[in-house]
Amino acid sequence: MAATKDPRPCSIADTLAVVGEKYSLLVLREVCLGNGRFDQLVRNIGAPRDILAARLKRLVDAGILTKKMYSERPQRFEYRPTAAALELETVLMTLMAWGDRHLRKDDDRPMVIEHICGNELVPVVTCSACGEEVRHEDMTAHPQAPGWTVSGPAVA
């Protein structure tokens, strides 16, 4: 197998570089719940203020959050989700459901999300073409990055 100094090109890795840090995902959780003020975020997340400020700046710079002033004196800002953040909300719901299934007991869940239909939301990933639920055994990976196969770098 040919040696490479660069890891596999990957959209998952690129996404994690922006939102993969724990506090970034918790910021998204809170902002999607409507808690976008800095003091609310500090209280609800428990992150140190300096780290939280750095995560908020990164999320704003990445176009995931917007920053809007709500007080001039003292100057204070509220963070709101962009369309990109709202797309990530479904990822958060899937992570929460996984944690509820694998890390908690049914009676120990800290939050339940209700869908507009009135029932508890249980997120399911489905294929947009056929509507079937996505299962591991039904997927086949086709690497698109030049020089890469499913198992790693192509042998030259």
Entry summary:
The chain has five helices and four strands; from the N terminus they run ααααββαββ.
Textual characterization of the structure:
- There is one protein chain.
- This protein has 156 residues and is α+β, with helices and mostly antiparallel strands.
- It has a single domain (11-138), classed as Arc Repressor Mutant, subunit A (Orthogonal Bundle), CATH 1.10.10.
- 40% of the residues lie in helices and 12% in strands.
- The chain contains five helices and four strands; from the N terminus they run ααααββαββ.
- The protein has helices at 11-19, 22-32, 38-45, 49-61, 83-103, and strands at 65-72, 75-81, 148-149, 152-153.
- A two-stranded antiparallel ribbon has the order 1-2. Strands 3-4 form a two-stranded antiparallel sheet.
- Strand 1 (65-72) and strand 2 (75-81) form a beta hairpin.
- Helix 2 (22-32) packs across helix 5 (83-103).
- The chain is globular and about 65 Å long.
Strand content: 5-15%
Strand order of the largest sheet: 1-2
Strand count, sense and closure of the main sheet?
A: 2 strands, antiparallel
Radius of gyration from CA coordinates: 19 Å
User: What's the order of the H and E elements?
Assistant: HHHHEEHEE
Could you list the spans in which at least 5 consecutive residues all have pLDDT below 50?
none
Structural class determined from secondary elements: alpha+beta
**Under the CATH scheme, which architecture would be assigned?**
Orthogonal Bundle
Say what the CATH topology is.
Arc Repressor Mutant, subunit A
Outline: globular
Report the average pLDDT across residues.
93
What's the β-strand tally? 4
